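May I ask you to comment on the folded chain given beneath this request?
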Amino acid sequence: MNDSHPRPAPRSPRITGVAVALAAVLGLVTVSACASDERTAADGGKLDVVASFYPMEFLARQIGGDHVHVTGLTKPGQEPHDLELKPRQVASLEKADAVVYLKGLQPAVDEAIKQSGAKNVADAASLTSMEKHGDEVDGSHHSEGHSEGHSEGHSESHSEGHEGHDGHDHGDGDDPHIWLDPVRYAEVAEGVNKTLAKAAPDHREIFQKNTDALVAKLKDLDRKFKDGLRDRASNTFITTHAAFGYLAERYGLTEEAISGVDPESEPSAARIKDLHKLAKDHHVSTVFFETIASPATAKTVAGDLGLRTAVLDPLEGITAESEGHDYFEVMESNLAALRKALGTK
């Protein structure tokens, strides 16, 4: 039986090798887990918030401050309505501590959120009053003593915007552009605050403080618009994209959108005739285009009517072309553009 002793010896290193390999794997798992924990700790245990597009991102960041990590689903310069979600973006909704979005603007996001089972969800559309701002532009006019709830010129079925606003489907037809009215945007901010506070009760007081500061700034912006647009030669402005219905309503203005016109084609003769009369009767000086969409339509119409063109930014995203680095800066630029176009004193 002497020859039996050498046999286990070769086995021993193999067993040891397996054990070492197994220990190494376990060790890696442990290190990886520790690294994951360290990242969480290094991140300060921040609330993971997913926001659908820029105006929702801005609210989440302003309210959450240092206690949130915000991921936007829509890249800067990307038309929000056209957004198609990648699998990892859908997965991020399922893992998020909180989600901030605007139902009715991005069908892909609406569907993904519905499927995600996310618990802490702030839907901006449910946090303020929504209105329908008409389905077509017919060039008709309403009194200069503008009343709330009007519907002239706020087309959501226009097709000039290949840039993603073709046939917007906003559910029941509500105009989604609530963030362009500082008063409504402030109401949404209050609702987002509640959702974040529910997701992270320990930071409730900080979120409230940040919300109060944000709402105060939005009230100040509202006052700037009221004061800045008070004495004006005209109430009417022309845009390629009917995004400014709430803003127009808030400050007694009339938005006329160039409807049913492809960016590469000429506006219809009937619409040009309407716009010509409109521009003459209401002292319109400017046709507005936006940073994301093609300016072709606006430039065609402006050329036909002998009017200027300028940018009025619907603030669906901030890009290098934006007239400002954030919501407030761009809104101030919009106010300056409107003041010039409407002939304020």
Observations:
- The longest helix spans residues 8-42.
- The mean pLDDT is 79.
- The first strand starts at residue 47 and ends at 51.
- The CA atoms of residues 221 and 328 lie 8 Å apart.
